[in-house]
Amino acid sequence: MTTGYEYMILNRQQREIVVFHWHPGQRSHEHSPHVHLGSAVVDVNSSDIGKTFSRFRIPTGHVSVAQVVRLLLTDFNVVPNRQDWESVLGAILPAHT
To answer: What per-residue confidence (pLDDT) applies to 68?
Structure first.
């Protein structure tokens, strides 16, 4: 059995910003890795398009925990717990382009 993942990036109010999913072998019509934009980005109460867009499964490749950590540190400006985070992630991930 293949193990999937669910990585959620939440805002301070605990609302979803981005959710990375991969759930192979589960009861879902989508078995490929994908991402959802969360309620902190898409206002599901504002219109029908918001409700529809929140359900979109935007295709991605496989996403690792290390990639999500790098995203948080570089693009979401999360403060790292260690100063050598770039070399630690660099040993795991290909060079960031």
So the answer is: 95
**Based on the number of CB atoms within 10 Å of its own CB, is 72 exposed (0-12), middle (13-18) or buried (19 or more)?**
middle
Going by their DSSP bridges, the two strands 34-37 and 16-22 should be labelled as antiparallel
**CA-CA distances (angstroms) from residue 27 to 23, 38, 93, 94?**
9, 21, 31, 33
Q: What is the pTM of this model?
A: 0.80
Nearest to 31 by CA among 70, 62, 71, 64: 62
> What are the structural domain ranges in the chain?
1-63, 65-97
pLDDT 10s digits, 34-56: 998 887 777 666 666 655 666 78
